[in-house]
Amino acid sequence: MIASLPMYEFDRDALEAFWSTLAGALRLRGVKDVPDRLVWPEDLNAHWRQDDLFLSQTCGYPLVQGLNGAVKVLGAFHYTAEGCDGALYRSYVVARRNEQYRTLDYFRGRLAAYNSPESQSGYNAFRALVAPMARHGRFFAGTVETGSHLNSIDSVLSGRADVAAIDCVVLQAVERDDPDLFSRLTVVTATAPA
After folding, report:
1. What is the share, in percent, of the chain residues with pLDDT greater than 70?
2. Is residue 12 scored above 90 in pLDDT?
3. Disulfide: which of 34, 155, 188, 194 matches 161 by Cβ 3.0-4.6 Å?
4. What pLDDT score was predicted for residue 10?
5. CA–CA dist 33, 35 (Å, integer)
6. Cα–Cα distance between 113 and 111 in angstroms, integer?
7. Cα–Cα distance, 1 to 51 (Å, whole number)
8. Greatest distance between any 2 Cα atoms in the chain
9. Nearest CA to 48 among 21, 79, 69?
10. What was the pLDDT predicted at 69?
11. Do residues 121 and 59 make contact, with C-beta atoms less than 8 angstroms apart?
12. Which band of pLDDT confidence, cut at 50, 70 and 90, is reported for residue 113?
């Protein structure tokens, strides 16, 4: 059997320590086939459908759009990052600190970065935020798919994009682990909680 916690893998040692404690607690309760260590899958969609999957973690959008019936929901983590409230979380729309914005509308006709169309926090919540502001079906001049929240931040800071929606847990980890990088960003607004 395999287990993973792939959503926030910034500190794999900390996740392995967490898993070791959780796995021990599960074994004490008589749960069989508990994996000793976590795996770090590259293809999450295939991983979540593996027959030998013991436990994993997914973003909410893939859960309701493709995994419903393929997996069983056991619970939701409650993170303590700013923007989290119980199992709810939000994203923060970020830009370069030197941008002279007053509202999100300042970024109309500019470029947006997103991690993946399967992401609730980096794509779907962002789309829901700007959709009411669209004119003729568009708000941004274009978009850049980056593959991860960290790559979206890099795209904003390098000028390949002007804004991106970053999961609040990811953004707090950036603030904690790379304060210099975080200091180059500014929060424009927040998405609705999900």
Report:
1. 100
2. yes
3. 155
4. 84
5. 6
6. 7
7. 9
8. 59
9. 69
10. 84
11. yes
12. very high
41 pLDDT above the threshold of 90: yes
Q: How far apart are CA 193 and CA 88, in angstroms?
A: 6
pTM of the full structure:
0.90
DSSP string covering 58-111, please?
--HHHIIIIIBTTB---------STT-BTTB--EEEEEETT---SSGGGGTTSE
Report how far residue 69's alpha carbon sits from residue 55's, in angstroms, rounded to the nearest whole number: 15
Q: Is beta strand 53-55 parallel, antiparallel or unpaired with respect to 91-96?
A: unpaired
Nearest to 126 by CA among 184, 185, 166: 166
Polymer length in residues for the chain: 194
Determine the Cα–Cα distance for residues 20 and 97; give it in Å rounded to an integer. Answer: 40
Residue 4's DSSP bridge partners are none
What mean pLDDT is predicted for residues 15-35?
97
Q: Confirm if 89 and 194 have CB atoms less than 8 A apart.
A: yes
What are 117's two structure tokens? 């169309």
Cα 183 to Cα 174: distance, rounded to the nearest angstrom: 10
> Tokens in use for 16?
């392995």
Residue type, 141: A
CA angle 186–189–191, rounded 5-degree value: 130
C-alpha–C-alpha distance, residues 7 and 9, integer Å: 6
Closest CA relative to residue 155, chosen from 125, 180, 185, 129: 185
Q: Which residue has the tokens 């970024």?
A: 107
- Is the model's pLDDT at 59 over the cut of 90? no
